[in-house]
Amino acid sequence: MRVHFLQHVPFETPGILTEALKDRADISFTRFFNDEVLPRTSDLDLLVVMGGPMSVHDESVFSWLKDEKRFVENVIKQGKSVLGICLGAQLIAEVLGARVFKGAHREIGWFDITRTPEVASSSFAHFWPETITAFHWHGEMFEIPLGAQRIAYSQACENQGFIFEERVVALQFHLEVTPQLIAGLLAHGANEMEAGAYVQSAQEIRQKMALCRPANALMRRVVEEMAENALSV
After folding, report:
1. Global pTM?
2. Which residues pair with 140 in a beta bridge?
3. pLDDT of the chain along its 233 residues, tens only?
């Protein structure tokens, strides 16, 4: 299987994803911060769109966003599998016609997400938990695109993820995080950690690093399911 990552900043890495995929996939990258070019859509089976501190609306600042949106849209139209995380999920939502906007709350830290009833009719039904504590770092959120199934919500954000046509998965939260990835976010995103009901301190976040393990286990299940779908096309 050929898996291609779109990475927006050096410190938001694939985390556990490269380890989860290394034995079953050829992995490649487009690192926009290094001005790397996008591949041909025919050269991938699964596209993974990572997070980043920018907004989907920042095309005037990051000119590559226009090309990235067009690329993601074409990959989806060609029936391939796509996983989006945080900013990546918002990009998927936008290219599918849904609105991305500033949320009522900034959500940073470890918070529970709850499964929706719609999961029962999806390919995630056999493994998606009723609740799990996931890592969050976002101020914007998305509406659910037409035809997609909402899969989770939290107290701060009613739309935490969706599945579209059983092959496109958007996750507002982070299941891929490792202690090293979180350390990078804390180092580069300290200016975003304004006091709020759903913003934890750096100390509290560090104290809960053991939560990476169950989050990573669920991330592996998601990737396994998506890999099977990608190879069945």
Report:
1. 0.97
2. 102
3. 999 999 999 999 999 999 999 888 999 999 999 999 999 999 999 999 999 999 999 999 999 999 999 999 999 999 999 999 999 999 999 999 999 999 999 999 999 999 999 999 999 999 999 999 999 999 999 999 999 999 999 999 999 999 999 999 999 999 999 999 999 999 999 999 998 999 999 999 999 999 999 999 999 999 999 988 777 76
Q: 56 burial class (0-12, 13-18, 19+ CB within 10 angstroms)?
A: buried
161: nearest Cα among 138, 186, 185: 138
The answer to whether the Cα torsion of 158, 68, 163, 110 is positive or negative is negative
Return phi, psi of residue 17, to 5°: -65, -40
Angle at which helix 87-95 crosses helix 64-77, to 10 degrees, equals 70
Return d(Cα 17, Cα 15) in angstroms, integer: 5
Q: How many C-alpha atoms does 176 have within 13 Å on its Cβ side? A: 25
Please list, in sequence order, all residues whose beta carbon lies within 8 angstroms of the beta carbon of residue 166, skipping any fewer than 6 positions away.
Answer: 122, 123, 229
